[in-house]
Amino acid sequence: MFRKAIFLLAGNATASLLSLVRNLLIARLIPVEDYGIAATFALVMTLVEMAAALGLQVQIVQSDRGDDPHFQAGLQGFHVLRGALSALILFAAAGAVGSFLKLPELTWAYRTVALIPLINGFTHFDIHRMNRRMRFGPLMAFNALPMALTLVAVWPLVAWLEDWRVMLVVLVLQAVAMTTVSHLVAERRYRIAFDFGIMRSSLSFGWPLLINNALLFGVFQGDRLLVARELGPSVLAIFSMGVTLTLTPTLVMSKSLQNLFLPRLSAEPDAAHFDRLAMAAMQATMLSATTLMAAVFLFGPALVTTVLGEGYTELIPYLGPLAAVQAIRVLKTGGSLVALARQQTGNAMVANLFRVATLPVVWWLLVRGAGLPEVIAVAMIGEISGFAASLLLIRYRLRQRLAPLALPLAVTAALIALTSGLPWDFNGAGRLLPSVPAIAAVLVLFAVQLATMSKLRIWVVRRLRRWGGG
């Protein structure tokens, strides 16, 4: 299983790194304001996709019927209908979207984005079904190959279009490539079935996820949407790039941990073993959160200055706080993962409500002249509240003991605070770096954090022994 963990992390990291490099390249090659416009396409696409998601991919992994060909065909048929409905809604609402974002001249572009959910609707679910047998290669190909293709396409597209239209074409090309790859790596022949029994059971399973995904749009994109409307494309470009740099590794870690732990947790019948594995999974999310913070702390400003150039130097003061928001979000996924393994699909929804509840406050502040610091501060309050709620839910709904998390969580909080709030020192080489004492303090806290994570440490040692023993 440890081999699987390394493979999963490497595969997810490769796909996300390719996506990140692609977006960084586009940001570097087109004007800052144009990148802000391009960011609105991803906002709109994500809104439609997340608002209509029912966790069909999760069902084929989690359900006892996941290997049944008819059940898979029924899920695929439902996915086609979902994609078509999403495309129709976006096409019809494109004018309203353009008006809300104060970009009515781009209505035609938002209608073009409607192609993406329609294309994605024909994805072959074999890439998810094979996860049941811990076969992750097809899913890794599905995630990575389209990103590589669209990265290669950036240069000729920039030479041809030279503006925000590059991102529009890239997103449509990515959807075509991902759907194509899902069929190329599949084992079974693609079939769709419109089984109303499967649809009803999917709705029963997925309605909390549907609401949660609608909330997740607010969690992941709500602030960007409000910044786009109230502060304009140029500020959105700075803010969106900061979110992208800090969110991308967050998604890599969350996806890898879910792919690694969810099948094991879902299949674990023994309550005591489940508790130990759940604690290991949650401690793993803590380690992931602080790893993100350390990476941004050490390399974030240098990345901005060397890769993105002078147009994005305004981003540097916001990197630490933005990374802290994402790190707390990673912590929140631990409880949601454990709850999902026991079919408690509503836990994530409840936790995310706290974050979404901050959006009216953000809008109110922006209308009254606030800027990005206030947006980030309110977001952090929302994430902390949601994380606290997620812990309470698993404590009282799953009867999960939280004592093994107390000390690791305290050290994790100290690390997040330290790496998000320290000032940067400017050295003579022209790059922003943290001070030597600050680096030393972070390393010491890292060592303490690892020492307190007994459940995760025991789990990793056992996996290493099995790996070493063949």
From TrEMBL:
Keywords: Cell membrane, Membrane, Transmembrane, Transmembrane helix. It comes from the Bacteria. GO terms for cellular component: plasma membrane. It is found in: Cell membrane. The chain crosses the membrane at residues 37-58, 79-101, 107-127, 139-158, 164-186, 198-219, 231-252, 286-309, 315-341, 348-366, 372-393, 405-424, 436-456. It is a multi-pass membrane protein. InterPro entries: Poly_Biosynth_Transport (IPR050833). PANTHER family: O-ANTIGEN TRANSPORTER-RELATED, PST FAMILY PREDICTED COLANIC ACID TRANSPORTER. This is Polysaccharide biosynthesis protein. It comes from Roseivivax halodurans JCM 10272.
